[in-house]
Specification:
homodimer, alpha+beta, 5 strands, about 35% helix, about 15% strand, globular, DNA-binding
Chain lengths: ~170, ~170
DNA sequence: CCGTATCCATTCCGATACTG
DNA sequence: CAGTATCGGAATGGATACGG
């Protein structure tokens, strides 16, 4: 049977998808990380229709990724700021450009670099590691559910139909 | 002016959004990492209509995230496998459940853990670090474009309208 | 097993106009 | 400045039936 909503999918990726999987949200969040806060700035720089922007901002506020705060001294002005939950998307905001740069770039070298404002050091390409610094690849990762059932990411040699966490 | 396509947005996140920002793609990719390869398995386990699944798989193949390989010995059977580009999404597949678990879970403790199949160690929460291991936060990251212009992620105290890379 | 074809309802999106 | 109201066309989604 086919489903219309992800609400009954007990899967953390499906839940995240519900809140994030939209073209406009990606770039709104990106600009929010860049310090953008105002409706008109988003509208102009993204090139999005005002009604669509209203809808997306509302959804992000409803998801508690952005928060809507009136600006002191101007009864009309409003700012959209990242919440703690929104700020916690930072690794993804770093990862996506890295992935794009590796796989989508048309020509030339890397177009940008990201550094620590404190030390000036380059940030590392995002990778999955353990506490001891071992890099875990997608073929050698193992996921264990709360219930104790366990399975391994095994795209290359695993059986089809294998699932790690329910969905 | 409003835009209809992201094609002219010279922004790596916008490019990634074009290829990834879709609900179904998130869960298809998740299941692909779990070793799922067959059309019917995706259709049944995700609960997606076959025409929609066809469309999404085709887009992922067109984006070179999945590859479509005929199965030996069965003229009809086909497998969808992650490409190298697809495998490179692994950090995101790890990050999203971590983020969901932190912010979206309804109750109880973490529902699952991810470990290295080699050492058994837990994987770390995804975070942005430098080579020397310094953790970079969203408020102390600095991005420099190829052209040399530079700006800082500064959600809390920055001016509105600030942009790091064009969009 | 892996899709296509078709249909229909719903949603979405951009454009435009207007407002406190 | 930050939206709301409305509209029409396009795209999407689900259901269903069918085919090699």
């Amino acid at each position: 049977m086919t489903r219309s909503s992800f609400a009954d999918m007990d899967c953390p990726i499906a839940q995240a998808a519900e809140q994030l999987a939209d073209k406009w949200k990606f770039v709104i969040i990106r600009n929010a990380f860049n310090g953008m806060r105002r409706f008109d700035d988003f509208a102009e720089q993204l090139g999005v229709a005002s009604n669509v922007l209203t809808a997306r901002l509302s959804e992000l506020v409803a998801a508690d990724i952005l928060t809507r705060v009136p600006v002191d001294g101007d009864g009309r002005a409003v700012e959209y700021r990242l919440t703690a939950k929104g700020h916690d998307l930072f690794p993804m905001v770093i990862f996506l450009p890295q992935w794009s740069d590796r796989w989508l770039k048309k020509r030339g070298g890397p177009r940008f670099e990201i550094t620590s404002a404190d030390t000036g050091e380059l940030v590392q390409p995002m990778q999955v590691t353990t506490a001891s610094g071992v890099v875990v690849t997608s073929k050698r990762a193992q996921i264990r559910e709360g219930r104790g059932r366990s399975s391994v990411y095994r795209d290359i040699k695993g059986p089809s139909g294998q699932t790690a966490y329910g969905g």
